[in-house]
Amino acid sequence: MSKLNVIDFFCGAGGFSEGFNQMGFEIHRGYDNWQPAINTYNHNFGTDSEVTDILKFKNSIKEINNLPNTEIIIGSPPCVSFSSSNKSGKADKSLGLDLTKCFLRIVAVKKHKKDSVLKAWFMENVVNSKKYISNIYSFKDLDLTDWALENCIDPKSEALNLRDNTIIMNSADYGSYQARRRAISGEIISCNKLIIPGQTHSNKVEDNLPNWNTLGKLIKNMPSPISKESDLEIKDPVYKGITLNQCDVTDHFYDSGLYKSEWSQSKEHKINHYCMGKMSFPENLNKPSRTITATKSGTSREALIYKSEYNRKGNGEYRTPTIREAASLMGFPFTYQFLGSINSKWRLVGNAVCPSVSRALANRVLLSLNKKTPRTLKLKKEVIHSESGNLNDFKEKSFDKQPKRTKNSRFRRHPIKVGNITVTLSNYEIDKKSKAKNKWFTSIQYGTGINFKNQIVQDNYYKDFEPLLIKNKSGKQFVRIINNGFSEKIADSLTLQKMYELQESKGNYKEPTELVNEVNIIIRNLEIRNNTIKQKEREIFVYKDEIPMEQLFALYAINKIASVANEKGKKNASNLIKQLPGK
């Protein structure tokens, strides 16, 4: 039997194809509607693939028949709308379903056509996609009624079975330095089913397999991104057979440091999110990396953030992975190149299928067809450079362009999350989800679900329970700190908003994120442990009887910030009116 040919739909950077390529399969063509993806695919596989709208196969059998007849069909329909992280899982699924149906329609025709050469097909998507994709597809379901009748097939009969042929694969189980769980559907035609590839790694001692590869191990084996230019030989941390001169390692030797305003926002989302659990900050080096996403971000909860190799505090103290680090986490060789801007390269990497997973599937196909598996992987040993910019500049970044927020950006932040309660400072009404206003609000949230209870707290309320607070030794100390030094850092309401938008403090005043963070530090330094206050008549926290003392402190400080800012704002507005002509 000659080489097995592969066509790849929604091919992106080509991660799905790369795994098959490494196992000796012939990569025939890739299909994608994004030019940087096609450029990258052609560069790495030497194909002449062109930008293609996959939806053209939705209603045209002719277009499907014009596709090459290959032994293997693979595809990764876009997963954004299926992802549970996209608009909390409420995004429009229609396009994702249409594109998935297009792919399955192609597979069904190529599988059931007369004299079919198809040996196997595989589809990759996010785990959440299983909720929206049908278990069984008939020819009628795939809009192939006329085609089925022309080929003497009952249109209502089963064309593809995904119910029994869909599994969840974790890339960490196959040697990747990243834990990436994905739904894999497919079929080895001769077996009439999907056969699960055997794991090569595990996090369970009883499996008697090598342990999962960790993020720390990868970073240790990667050259430092702050290295100076040299001709040193660099070994690929994933593929031991590849050794390159440092000058040939692309997209790695540049400063990916983040402004403090960026990494601190991500840190807050990770360790103190108002409705989600705690995550590591920076990343946990003792586990496989978390999943790389397609969006390059240094501010989100999903962002991957490392401690910078530069000895810096504040701006540049933390960084995102380099493109090459992200590619190695995915399982791409150092010799694999990505074409486009830095954001395009990140998207190409983050959207890809891990080659370790596709390699395991390819190996399973070979075994099922009684074909020999290669002793060594088919790998490029040299870099074919492209005209698409190499990101290496070997320079330390200058942090002189502070990112700014859009005008009237909404603010929401709480100093501490304990007792399933958060005391929040915001510039909008949380319960009404209103737009930002020239006013600051204090509110208390009870619980983290959709139907959480919300208590609005009026300005200057902190004065009502200050006598209760100072009865406690730590409370007395806390009130003294807030009223002697901290309060002087609170600007008027308008200035507070402007500082938030500029993400910079001005003079003696602190911008709101720093104010709330300072409240957190003050409370934690008091070392209050398992100290609660019982409210017999629920006078302060109206929806709970027993309150952690830290939350009483938080309420005092947050309400003080809002009250002082709003009062100063009113005075400034009143003074402006008095200065108007005729006043």
UniProtKB/TrEMBL annotation:
The active site is at C79. GO terms for biological process: DNA restriction-modification system; methylation; negative regulation of gene expression via chromosomal CpG island methylation. It is an enzyme of class 2 (transferase). SUPFAM superfamilies: S-adenosyl-L-methionine-dependent methyltransferases. Its EC number is 2.1.1.37. Transmembrane segments: none annotated. Keywords: Methyltransferase, Restriction system, S-adenosyl-L-methionine, Transferase. One of its GO terms (molecular function) is DNA binding. It holds the Pfam family DNA_methylase. The keyword Iron-sulfur does not apply. It catalyses: a 2'-deoxycytidine in DNA + S-adenosyl-L-methionine = a 5-methyl-2'-deoxycytidine in DNA + S-adenosyl-L-homocysteine + H(+). The keyword ATP-binding does not apply. Belongs to the class I-like SAM-binding methyltransferase superfamily. C5-methyltransferase family. This is DNA (cytosine-5-)-methyltransferase. It comes from Polaribacter aquimarinus.
